[in-house]
User: Which sequence fits this backbone?
């Protein structure tokens, strides 16, 4: 960075300021330099078409993965809801059966005590 600051610019004008030198080095050596955003310097390093294509491909893969996981989550939630409904139906049936058994037991107990 010190070398960058002391060298004249490409068009032969004055030497780069320290901020410009830092911005240049960060732009070349980091993917997303936050420093440049904080000091309000535009991102100097343009991404290559290969980087953009790779990022797009990765985004497509990630989107497909997220869509798959979302579908699986939805299916799982639907299955859980169906199971809950089945359990409620079984509970209702069991309660009805229990009422019948209780009535029969009460009937038997009344006849036994007499």
Assistant:
């Amino acid at each position: 960075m010190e070398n960058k600051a002391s060298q004249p610019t490409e068009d032969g004008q004055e030497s780069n300021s320290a901020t410009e030198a830092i911005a240049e080095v960060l732009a070349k050596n980091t993917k997303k330099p936050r420093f440049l955003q904080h000091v309000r310097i535009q991102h100097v390093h343009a991404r290559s078409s290969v980087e953009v294509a790779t990022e797009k491909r990765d985004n497509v893969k990630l989107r497909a993965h997220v869509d798959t996981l979302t579908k699986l989550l939805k299916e799982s939630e639907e299955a859980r809801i169906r199971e809950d409904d089945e359990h409620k139906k079984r509970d209702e049936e069991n309660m009805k059966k229990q009422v019948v058994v209780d009535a029969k037991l009460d009937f038997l107990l009344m006849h036994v005590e007499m």
Remarks:
- The chain has a mean pLDDT of 80.
- The two ends are 106 Å apart (CA to CA).
- The helical segments are 2-6, 18-29, 34-38, 49-113.
- DSSP finds four helices and no strands in the chain.
